[in-house]
Design a protein that fits this description.
Elements (H helix, E strand, L loop, with lengths): L1 E8 L5 E6 L2 H9 L12 E9 L2 H11 L2 H10 L1 H11 L2
Length: about 90
């Protein structure tokens, strides 16, 4: 199985979109600063994941999510999470 995922840095709220075949291992790597793109972050948490049987489908989806249209899709897809998270931070 191939996973396209989005993780969020818990303090700053920045996002990272990636692809992996082992989601648990990959999240541990992000939190242990094994990825240059996420090494400066503190703690990362999984906020979104899609799973594919075909590698090329997953890679195509990752590329789409990193595009402008993909970002708009994701913001709609996790709108309840974003609203809830915003409420917690501003209460």
């Amino acid at each position: 199985m191939y996973h396209v995922y989005i993780i969020e840095e818990e303090i700053k709220g920045s996002w990272y979109i990636g692809y992996t075949t082992d989601l648990k291992r990959r999240l541990v790597e992000h939190n242990n600063h094994k990825n240059i793109s996420t090494a400066k972050g503190h703690q990362w948490k999984l906020i979104y994941c899609e799973t594919y049987v075909n590698k090329m489908d997953a890679l195509g989806r990752e590329k789409f999510l990193k595009s402008g249209s993909g970002w708009r899709f994701i913001k709609k897809q996790v709108s309840h999470y974003l609203a809830e998270n915003y409420s917690r931070k501003h209460s």
